[in-house]
Amino acid sequence: MTIDERLEALTQTVELLAVMHKDSEARFETFVAEMRENSADIRRAIDRLENTVNRLEQVSRAIGRVVLEHEDRIRDIEQRNQ
């Protein structure tokens, strides 16, 4: 193999590596954009879940108050009947 053939082979290799590198950069940029989009979707889902949990907590407290009020009424009725 002559020097010129070796130089040609090296040139082709470098050109191929440059194309592969450019392709990898483009795919990486696409990947990063998708991850940013997904993280925003996940953040919104977490926010909705937190809101739901907070509402459930409020409802549970309200139910607890109603239960205690009913227990008090039942106790009052039982005491009057004794």
Structure description:
The chain contains one helix and no strands. By secondary structure, it is an all-alpha fold. It is rod-shaped and about 115 Å long. Helices cover 96% and strands 0% of the residues.
* Helix percentage range: over 70%
Straight-line N-to-C gap = 114 Å
Helical run tally? 1
Major β-sheet annotation:
none
How many DSSP-defined strands? Answer: 0
Low-confidence stretches: none
Please report which band the strand proportion falls in: under 5%, 5-15%, 15-25%, 25-35%, 35-45% or over 45%. Answer: under 5%
Descriptive tags:
1 helix, mainly alpha, rod-shaped, about 80 residues
Strands, helices and their partners?
Blueprint: H1 3-81
Summary, kept brief:
The chain is mainly α and 82 residues long. The chain contains one helix and no strands.
